[in-house]
Design a protein that fits this description.
Length: 711
């Protein structure tokens, strides 16, 4: 007669194909008893969504049936989901949640929310207890997909999540309605994700799925730093300070994270004075009776958004100390408005003269011809500020100053660039408002066309009386082939309270001049700005255009406390912080990266994976969505967007490939109806693909949990 020990010894030879340990040492065999020639026991799997369930059941039965004296096997299969959480994690609201899974992507438009929904539903269909959290603050879609219309109940400041298709669902969309007051400020914004995690009565869950939204800006977008210097977003470093809106004013806040978001489709948003390019899900601060954050894809022509205008702050620049003979020239110790006016004029019309055949600067040349409108003005300014002598150069086409110390000063101030490489030095942006305005006047009198207009208008006052007012306006027309300089001047205008139009481009074709010279084809960058100052710190700008701008490499920031920053003089919210907030709030069991089959998948997945690896989050695998089109009649697969990007990415990055989800309009249609495909048609090829993916994810989580305990 067989004994329990005989059966146990036989089962030690049955290995879990994923954990690579025998089912006995893993504790999977429970309630074993022998009654005559019948063996009764329970096979307790690590998850009801075990991808190897059928194989393990067959192997266990075969092993027990092979024991001498056993003629019948009575096996019951159950599952007890293993946890990736540790005893040190004491988050009260999550104490009975065994595993938290993030669903993320390196770009928008990959169907990430659809994957999160069908992953949750597939796990629930296997018998697991599942929750689904929508972490999108500014355009949550999970409630629509899950068919949840009513807000959850709140009991003693704890949110009770509604149940839909057997899954507990919580989304900020339940609370962020049109009547939500003003803007989510301070800790309320920074803690939105944390609040959903910690203030919801999740109860006993095997899996909590969290949908993380990306939102981003392309490389080259200018972020306003705390020193007032605009800096391309891709050059911002963790630990730097940028300007953030606290609901009343701009304040410096530390950058906690810089997130490359991969290459994705972006859109160009224009106001009369500003242009910004962003992904469709990047939030902007809209005003309509109150302030609310709205994603770009939710904005319409005519909507008004909040923009940064005049920045009052700044520090007077101490000038570099240059050795010189004080009897011949005077070099000021600090910048002044007259000095800044000279610098602005010099950026437009001047250059540092270098001795022929040598690198030694010997003086300045200013291309202001004899008889021109501002020649005498600037010769007088140079003599007043520097106590220098000016003389004619190039038959009166320029005036010159022969002074090595003065040339050294202008070189030290980063003013020694050739025409095509000129730019506004960083220290100019850091200067006080009066100095910046003086610089812009100097540039206008050098390289701009100033149009002076005076007009009398009859304007009513508050009593209803009409009075005649003289309106004086000076408008500067800028045109240059130097894109960097045009961008710098435009940005300086906006932050100095001067109204400026958007930059336009005009192509100038090849041209032969009467004097025999030839001008090659070039691109001219043009705009206008007013010399009239408006010192309001913020303005409302009406949206005049939203245009498709193709695909670009994109980035996002996480900014401390207020979670927003100034980009291209427009206030935008950061979104990439959701991943960091989630990882800092509670240990994640793992992350699923969603990509598409294009060749760019490897690059996108690499950047997304790098971010989560820095956060020490286990990578459960890569899923390729919209992988192929399956003909509904013959079943033949057609790879519309190319094939294998996700699989190649997984192989090269040494992570699990979770499978391919086909492209089918029914997936979107059923989601829009609140009846996702795995519920509405569970036997369809699409549902089978989602189920296989969910089982692989569950299996990978079991491996993560086992390896964590073994360590």
């Amino acid at each position: 007669m067989a004994s329990s020990k005989d059966v146990t010894d036989a089962l030690r030879g049955v290995m879990d194909p994923e954990l690579h340990r025998d089912v006995v040492s893993l504790g999977m065999i429970e309630d074993l008893r022998i009654d005559g020639d019948v063996a009764y026991f329970t096979l307790n799997l690590t998850t009801p969504a075990c991808p190897m369930r059928a194989e393990m059941e067959e192997n266990v039965k075969r092993a027990v049936a092979g024991v001498k004296g056993i003629k019948r096997v009575e096996m019951k299969t159950t599952a007890h989901v293993v946890t990736t959480r540790t005893s040190s994690d004491q988050t009260a609201a999550l104490k009975d949640v065994k595993n938290i899974i993030a669903v993320a992507s390196g770009k928008g438009g990959v169907g990430k929310s659809t994957v999160a929904v069908n992953l949750a539903l597939s796990l629930a269909a296997s018998g697991a207890k599942v929750g689904l959290m929508d972490a999108d603050v500014y355009g949550p879609s999970i409630p629509l997909m899950m068919g949840v219309k009513d807000r959850p109940q709140v009991r003693d400041e704890t949110i009770i999540p509604p149940l839909s298709h057997g899954v507990k669902v919580v989304s900020l969309g339940f609370f962020y309605k049109d009547e939500t007051p003003l803007v989510w400020r301070g800790p309320m914004v920074a803690g939105a994700v944390k609040q959903l995690l910690t203030q919801v009565e999740w109860g006993d869950l095997d899996y909590l799925i969290v949908d993380l939204p990306p939102g981003c800006l392309p490389a080259g977008t200018l972020v306003l730093t705390a020193s007032n210097v605009p800096k391309p977003i891709e050059q911002i470093k963790v630990g730097e300070f940028v300007m953030s809106y606290d609901g009343e004013k701009l304040v410096p806040r530390k950058v906690l994270g810089v997130f490359p978001q991969g290459k994705q489709r972006v859109f160009k948003l224009k106001t009369p004075n500003r242009t910004i390019v962003a992904s469709g899900n990047h939030p902007f601060l809209k005003y309509h009776r109150k302030l609310t954050w709205r994603k770009l894809e939710q904005l319409r022509l005519g909507d008004r958004i909040v923009v940064s205008h005049c920045i009052i702050g700044g520090q007077t620049l101490p000038l570099p100390n240059i050795n010189h003979n004080s009897d011949k020239i005077m070099l000021p110790k600090v910048a002044s408005p007259d000095f800044m006016r000279i610098v602005g004029h010099f950026v437009g019309e001047g250059f540092v003269k270098v001795q022929k055949g040598k690198k030694q600067p010997v003086g300045l040349r200013i291309c202001e011809p004899r008889g021109s409108k501002f020649r005498e003005t600037y010769e007088a300014l140079y003599r007043t500020v520097f106590n220098c002598h000016t003389f004619e150069d190039n038959k009166g086409q320029k005036f010159a100053i022969a002074s090595t110390p003065l040339a050294q000063l202008f070189t030290a101030l980063d003013l020694n660039h050739k025409a095509k490489d000129k730019r506004v030095p960083d220290w100019v942006f850091m200067s006080p408002l009066e100095h910046r305005q003086a610089f812009l006047r100097g540039y206008a009198e050098a390289d701009g066309t100033i149009r002076h207009r005076e007009e009398e208008k009859d304007l009513p006052d508050w009593r209803g009386s009409v009075r005649s007012v003289l309106i004086v306006q000076d408008t500067v027309g800028v045109g240059t082939t130097n894109k960097r300089l045009a961008t710098d001047i435009h940005e300086l205008c906006l932050m100095s309270g001067l109204r400026a139009s958007n930059i336009r481009t005009r192509v100038r074709e090849d041209q032969a001049l009467p004097d025999g010279r030839f001008l090659a084809k070039s691109v001219q960058y043009e705009f206008e700005y007013s010399l009239k100052v408006d010192q309001r710190p913020f303005k409302l700008a009406r949206i005049t255009a939203i245009e498709d701008a193709g695909e670009e490499e994109t980035y996002d920031l996480q900014v401390d406390q207020y979670q927003n920053f100034v980009a291209n003089s427009i206030i935008v919210h950061n979104t990439g912080d959701s991943s960091l907030t989630l990882a800092q709030t509670v240990p994640l069991g793992g992350v699923v990266i969603v990509t598409t089959p294009q060749d760019a998948a490897l690059n996108i997945a690499t950047k997304a994976l790098a971010m989560f690896r820095k956060l020490n989050v286990p990578i459960l695998g890569i899923l390729e969505n919209m992988s192929y089109f399956a003909c509904p009649h013959c079943g033949e697969k057609t790879y519309i967007f190319s094939a294998g990007g996700g699989k190649r990415a997984a192989a090269q990055l040494d992570v699990q490939f979770l499978g391919e989800i086909p492209l089918n309009s029914r997936i979107r249609e059923q989601s829009d109806l609140g009846n996702p495909i795995v519920v509405s048609d569970p036997s369809s090829p699409e549902s089978v693909a989602f189920k296989d993916m969910a089982y692989r994810v569950a299996g990978m989580l079991s491996i993560v949990a086992y390896e964590a305990k073994a360590a």
